[in-house]
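Homework help board

Subject: predicted structure for assignment chain

Our instructor gave us this sequence and asked us to write out the predicted structure in token form, then describe one feature. I got the tokens but I'm not sure how to describe them. Can anyone check?
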Amino acid sequence: MTQETVNALVSPEGSLEILSSHEVNRLKDKSEGGLYRLFRQCALAVMNIDADIDDCKDLMEIHANFDIRLVPQPRGLKLELINAPAEAFVDGEMLRGIREHLFSVLRDIIYAHSILTATPGLTRDDPETITNLIFHILRNARVMQPGRHPDIVVCWGGHSISREEYVYSKEVGHELGLRGLSICTGCGPGAMKGPMKGATIAHAKQRVKNGRYIGITEPGIIGAEAPNPIVNELVIMPDIEKRLEAFVRTGHGIIVFPGGVGTAEEILYLLGVLLHPENRDLPFPIVFTGRPENAEYFEMIDQFIRNALGDEAAARYQIIIDDPAKVAQAMKHGMEEVQAFRRTNQDAYYFNWMLKIDPVFQLPFEPTHASMRSLALHRNQAPHLVAANLRKAFSGIVAGNVKEQGILQVQEHGPFEIAGDPELLNPLEDLLAAFVQQNRMKLPGAAYKPSYRIVNEPSPAVVK
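My token output:
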């Protein structure tokens, strides 16, 4: 496949980036411990706008000749781009939004890798350290605005959706924007782009000049879900677990549109966290919504949740079909409850410190054939552990579908095996089959070869 490319020297948007010689050397380092490969991959992804690719491995192969180099300047640095995708430029000049995204990548990759090594006494697997790392990355990216009342609605949903579903997500975003609410998504296409696009029009109508379109991603997924151009605050977290925690710490409510395994992973993470007893009284509005033809989809999701996690988990969300205004009204009312609760409990509006997150949801899970096969997928354990292990299973499928390392593992060793109790896995298999049938695994037109295989096994004794 031949792609139009551009060579360019790009200056930072806004303040000049200042890096130490050590940081510059790490970015140039092409060895296993260096940051060059990670930086190159993420930089290429943010320039890959409006491309019909959701396979990070394919993206890197198509642009195998792309290179990025740091050019020191007396007042900072510039980036030299070689064989960069032409769609990121107009008349030889890089789009301003893409330039912002490019230097957000530089900022976050350097900062995330510097903070732990620069702070003595911190350990990577300590829950308090993980939450503080997320806080520092978000603060460094200027996502936190202390004087602002709760208004951030996180929107989750598939990148591979129909045109009609995309239009509906845009209508919901429009209703949210009319009520002065801002949008945070995984920053990609589909149900992540639609709400942002709708909100921009509504904000213009209401003369909202400080509307926020926050995109939170991570290196493994950014190549498959390149940031859409509407995102005006891009943050790259180190891994999927920190990305998910950033969503629930930053956002004040969550809307879920139809999606595939990535959306299911997000739902299980969210409900698993909220099932913790310390979160029982914490207000966090959640709405599942879609068009009339999506009613069956959400009924399927609802039944899966009730079977796996119980009715207590299902009580945390409401399902609203084909009513964008009602969805926005529910979120606006939820924002008022969140504001009252945090004011009473003296918790920050800009970061959800009171939310209790069990370490099982924080520690990074590396999908391999061994780790996927050994997941405890049975109901003889606490509901939040069921949610945590199912979340990891979905995370592994996402890796096998779109992440470079996961794709390579599946190509080399075959599909990941997902083993466990038939009472849990039979509904899981039905859910995954529905995702495949509805083309929610890959972009339309891309053939899907399953990256997983279900294996039924007897249920073990109850885990206390």
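Reply (TA_rk): Your tokens look well-formed. For the description, you could write something like this. Residues 116 and 122 are 6 Å apart (CA to CA). That's the kind of observation they're looking for.
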